[in-house]
Amino acid sequence: MSHAGSQTAVFRAVDVAKIYRMGEVQVHALRGVSLDLFDGEFIVLLGASGSGKSTLLNILGGLDTPTSGTVHYLDRELTASDDAELTQYRRQSVGFVFQFYNLIPSLTARENVELITEIASSPMDPLEALELVQLRDRANHFPAQLSGGEQQRVAIARAIAKKPKVLLCDEPTGALDVHTGIVVLEAIARINRELGTTTAVITHNAVIAQMADRVISLSDGQIAGVQTNTDKRSAQALQW
Ligand SMILES: Nc1ncnc2c1ncn2[C@@H]1O[C@H](COP(=O)(O)OP(=O)(O)OP(=O)(O)O)[C@@H](O)[C@H]1O
Q1: What pTM, to 2 d.p., does this model score?
Q2: What is the ipTM of this complex?
Q3: With a 6 A CB cut-off, is 203 part of the ligand 1 pocket?
Q4: ABC transporter domain location, by residue (predicted)?
């Protein structure tokens, strides 16, 4: 879904700074980032290692808080929320996907997804979530019986089974080969398209940026550029 039809800001970050203090050393991870993310859009966050991508994603997802600046999720000011409110926000509204899949080895694909649907307020059926990543036929397999790309798709099914408003993915294809990475990106794009889930994907790979509605480039903790893709590509059309 393109953000062109709908300009509701799901996230509004204003002048966000993050300083990590470690003893005498201060690391300025974000230096005044202002950004709106719109309902249903697919954005890619691009930038060199250490440019602040994960820090920004973690702040949007309520896993971390900025040192200064404000972040709103719809009408809720995340930067004014306490830990319990942030936990509630993450649980209800955010799906996370990380580079490493973090599946529980002793549970099947379906049971890994059920862990989340059991605590969510209006989840989809775990098999429906696995269907969306085209793994319904593997529901009874354990992680060790699945390839890396399949495990990542289970992790995506787990992330979206609670029907979150936003899906935040930190290097989802970082551990995968090209072909497998494309299958995983297709799954993420399908969820964005079919469920209208506002989606942000961190990558080092500029080729992946061609899939996005908008590409946000970070450099040294600041936004170095925002590019709107007029001709958005499908995952299958990417080559790297
Ligand atoms: N918990 C932390 N404590 C101290 N410094 C941190 C912490 N997390 C991140 N940093 C520092 O903040 C800066 C930005 O890190 P961040 O992980 O956001 O970058 P990134 O763009 O996601 O990098 P990468 O692509 O390597 O994951 C880096 O210099 C990093 O070392």
Answers
A1: 0.92
A2: 0.95
A3: no
A4: 11-240
CA-based end-to-end distance of the chain: 24
- Cα–Cα distance, 123 to 114 (Å, whole number): 10
> Which residue has 């080895």 as its token pair?
105
Tokens 């955010």, residue located: 94
What are the beta bridge partners of residue 225?
217
- Rounded to the nearest integer, the mean pLDDT of the chain is 92
* Burial class for 108, CB neighbours closer than 10 Å (0-12, 13-18, 19+): buried
User: Does residue 104 have its Cβ closer than 6 Å to ligand 1?
Assistant: no
CB 237 less than 6 A from any atom of ligand 1: no
* Nearest protein CA to atom 11 of ligand 1, as residue: 29
- Which domains can be identified in the chain, with CATH numbers? 39-62+94-237 (3.40.50.300)
Q: Is the CB of 206 under 6 A from ligand 1?
A: no
Instruction: Tell how far the Cα of 200 is from the centroid of ligand 1, in angstroms.
Output: 18
How many angstroms does the Cα of residue 114 sit away from the middle of ligand 1? 32
Closest CA to 98 of 174, 42, 191: 174
Compute, in angstroms, the gap from residue 28 CA to the centroid of ligand 1: 9
Q: Is the pLDDT of residue 3 over 70?
A: no
Q: Are 14 and 51 within 8 A, CB to CB?
A: no
